[in-house]
Write a structure and sequence with these properties.
Oligomer: single chain
Strand order of the largest sheet: 1-2-10-7-12-5-4-3
Largest sheet: 8 strands, mixed
Number of domains: 1
Distance between the termini: 46 Å
Number of helices: 9
Radius of gyration: 19 Å
Order of helices and strands: EHHEHHEEHHEEEEEEHEEEHEH
Length: 316
């Protein structure tokens, strides 16, 4: 494996020199599809509280957790059991379970018809509060990072502001169970895949395993230092930028034999644009790369991809 480091970019630089931060952040994105941001604004108490309640939720019985599953809605809110999701183009499901917290909409929001409320976990009242706090903190920070992306792309700093303010963004609480018994043959914690959305914010995990594929084909270990976030570009940003910013393939490996008895928890925040936002490749990016894909709304693109990864099923 080639030794390529993703150098952290301090968020403190954004406060003093936005252009310099945008350049460093954007160049990291363009090189690997990933960036590491240190000195972020998410409070450690919010992170710790959510982590504690996440472990409490996944420790509930399977019967209890399944009360909060919504297969008909593509598991876009609430609980998804092991076996719900597979990587695009892969038949074997990932060995993981997860929870989705979504955006809290105003009562009169035009998106209510297509974006459900997040279910309330009756057994763990604190779970609902702390996961909501983490959602809001990551949503706000992610919108700020998109301002840096806009500057890197020579757009107005606020270009994305009104395009993500009601986006179908999701906080995913992931649990990769310990391998107390051998996992199903051929399964991995998360097979090689790309994210669907604009950008993903990821808090550091206690257990290793996340790898990103560099454009030269090598796999890089990705670990966020304490106090840092890993940020990666998704397919929607790749499409918008005509491939100038790549949506990098990444995976989560099965644990080594000595770590097999330890579960892995991870907390990605998938930042999505508003569902009616038209993903139309930016002219400057098209001129640079020569790649053109037909415009598509974020909502249509999401549903297309959810079918490909097995979360959304076509009705017979």
């Amino acid at each position: 494996m080639t030794n390529i480091e993703i150098t952290p970019v301090s968020y403190d630089l954004w406060r003093t020199d936005k252009a310099a931060f945008a350049k460093a952040f954007g160049e990291s994105f363009a090189e690997t599809g990933f960036a590491v941001v240190s000195d972020h604004t998410i409070s450690q108490s919010t992170i710790d509280s959510a982590a504690e309640e996440t472990k409490a939720f996944f420790a509930l019985s399977s019967e209890t957790k399944r009360k909060y599953a919504d297969a008909e809605g593509g598991f876009q809110r609430g609980y998804s059991p092991v076996g719900s999701e597979n990587a695009k183009g892969r038949e074997i499901s990932d060995f993981k379970e997860f929870w989705h917290t979504g955006r809290r909409l105003d009562e009169n929001s035009r998106y209510r018809a297509t974006m459900k409320d997040t279910p309330t976990v009756e057994e763990l009242p604190e779970f609902n509060l702390v996961t909501r706090d983490l959602y809001e903190a990551l949503d706000s920070f992610g919108a700020d990072l998109l301002r840096a992306v806009a500057l890197y792309l020579n757009l107005d700093e606020d270009y994305f502001d009104d395009k993500v303010d009601n986006g179908n963004s999701i906080l995913r609480l992931l649990h990769y169970p310990a391998h107390t018994n051998p996992p199903p043959e051929g399964s991995v914690r998360a097979a090689a895949h790309e994210d669907i959305n604009l950008i993903t914010l990821l808090l550091g995990a206690e257990e290793a395993g996340l790898q990103a594929q560099h454009r030269n084909g090598d796999w890089l270990d990705v670990n966020a230092p304490k106090g840092a976030l890993v940020v990666n570009a998704g397919d929607m940003l790749q499409r918008l930028t005509a491939g100038d910013i790549p949506s990098t393939t990444h995976r989560v490996l099965n644990p080594s034999e000595e770590r097999a008895r330890f579960p892995r928890y991870s907390t990605p925040f998938f930042l999505h644009p508003n569902q009616d936002y038209l993903i139309d490749p930016l002219p400057d990016c098209v001129a640079k790369t020569g790649k053109v894909e037909a415009p598509i709304t974020a909502g249509d693109y999401l549903n297309e991809r959810l079918r490909e990864i097995g979360l959304l099923k076509d009705k017979p």
